[in-house]
Amino acid sequence: MNNAAKIQELRHFLAKYALPPDRDPVLLGHPQADAALGGGLRPGALHEVFAGNWGGGGFAAALAVLTAGTRPLFWVRPDYEAMEYGAVSPGGLAELGGDPCQLIQVRARKADDALSAAADILACPHVGALLLELSGTPKSLDLVASRRLAFAANESGVTVILLREGADCEPSAALTRWQVSSAPSRADDDDWGNPVFDVQLVRHRAGGLGHFLMQWNPEHAVFTTHTGAVVAAPAHRPAYAQEQRHAV
User: Which of 109, 118, 159, 186 could crosslink 67 through cysteines, CB 3.0-4.6 Å?
Assistant: First the structure.
């Protein structure tokens, strides 16, 4: 077996276990979160964001803007999400620091079609990031489907942000799982207009966990530390520990 064949075999092995090959991580800008992630968010992987309230969608959008960089950002959502949570606003994306000209919106009839569209997008070159929004617990989004997403993200190098609204945590092949809700800004904060998120990294297949208050800076498109209580989980803590405790 030559070197090229060995490398390809290794990539398939890593994708099977949802551990992407070595790629330079994307710094979020929040020191504690980046440290828990082992140096930043891993590109070419599947990352889940569970929305505790409206803040979860803003956090997912901010992650997508950050990871897309200067390349196109695809936002895929079934029609139900548009009716329930409102249309995606290019102006709102600009206020988050994104470029509306990079945004490509894809509407699907149902979750199955959204997953199919996501697969097609990940097969295309030059995609910056894919934000896939699915609410509830559609049957089509099972462990097998998440493995396919993780594998396609790994093969293409495109970061996939899977936004879950009104959904229960279930087994998946995601590299990270975040539980997010909005948090209030301080009255004496000069950047009171910048969104603040209460963020829990409850699953990380390749590192530590943590609980952070993260403020999004739209001017520089990065997260910053927000003054307040921050609880950091030990880096050696098992990835499923917190989820199992909730289940009990």
Answer: 159
Report the Cα 161 to chain-centroid distance in Å.
3
CATH class of the domain defined by 30-247:
alpha beta
List the chain domain ranges. Answer: 30-247
Q: Cα separation of 219 and 183, whole Å?
A: 20
Match 């909730």 to its residue by tokens. 246
pTM above 0.85, yes or no: no
pLDDT at residue number 68: 94
**pLDDT given at position 11:** 56
Pick from 32, 14, 31: nearest CA to 23: 14
Predicted local distance difference test score (pLDDT) of residue 174: 96
Q: Answer for the pair 217, 228: CB distance below 8 angstroms, yes or no.
A: no
Name the band, by pLDDT with cuts 50, 70 and 90, for residue 54. Answer: low
- The DSSP bridge pattern shows strands 222-225 and 129-135 to be unpaired
Asked if 177 and 72 count as a contact pair (C-beta separation under 8 A), the reply is no
Tokens, residue 159: 């970061």
- Written as six digits, the tokens of 156 are 């293409």
Which DSSP symbol is given to 124?
Answer: S
Collapse the DSSP code of 181 into the 3-class scheme (helix H, G, I; strand E, B; otherwise coil) and give the result. strand
* Residue type at position 96: L
93-106 burial, b at 16+ Cβ within 10 Å, e below that, comes to beebbbeeebbeeb
- 139/143 Cα distance (integer angstroms): 10
Q: In this predicted model, which residue has the larger pLDDT, 16 or 116?
A: 116
Q: Which of 168, 99, 158 is nearest to 136 (CA)?
A: 168
Q: Is the dihedral of CA 232, 52, 207, 126 positive or negative?
A: negative
